[in-house]
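Hi U.,

Before I forget, here's the chain from the pilot set. I'm dumping it here mostly so it's searchable later in email.
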Amino acid sequence: MMRILHTMLRVGDLERSINFYTEVLGMRLLRRHEYPDGRFTLAFVGYNEESTQTVIELTHNWDTKSYDLGTGFGHIAIEVEDVYSAVEQIRSSGGKVVREPGPMKHGSTVIAFVEDPDGYKIELLNQKG
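Structure:
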């Protein structure tokens, strides 16, 4: 059996990113480790323990303040109970909404997009069922 463990994002300001994922999106900081010889820090955030759920690895290279996002990466998707109320909560917590809630183009699924401090897109989708 295989499963996805985490998605890694390189971030320019680790504390700012940890604050966004924990305070704005409601995740928990699961673990953090500094590697002084390599001049980088890894922080893992998620909604549940790594043993049961996929998490996000935030990688901060101490000597790099920002990154070009590139054209290959799309987004991270998070399931929420209600997209409309989630967007309002994120907005009131200082999060940046880049696509207001509504039906996706060419479909009926209600989605929204927010952006983290480094510009990574996060899609919000209603829980199925």
